[in-house]
Amino acid sequence: MSSARIQLKNFSQAELEDWVQTQGHKPFRGRQIFQWLWQKGIQEFSEMTNLPKSFVEELVKKCDLKLSSVHQVQTSRTQETSKFLIRLNDGIFVETVLIPEGKRVTVCLSSQVGCALDCDFCATGKMGLLRNLTSGEIADQLLHVRRFSEQPITNIVFMGMGEPFHNYDQVIKAADILNAELGFAHGARKITISTSGLVPQIRRFADEGHRYKLAVSLNASQDSSRSTLMPINKKWNIAELIKACQYYTRASSNMLTFEYVIMDGINDNLGDARRLMKIAGQVFCKVNVIPYNEVVDEYVRPSKKRVEAFVEALQGARFGVTVRWSQGDDIDAACGQLSTIAQEVIGR
Ligand code: SAH
Ligand code: SF4
Question: Are 192 and 280 found together in one domain?
Answer without folding.
Answer: yes
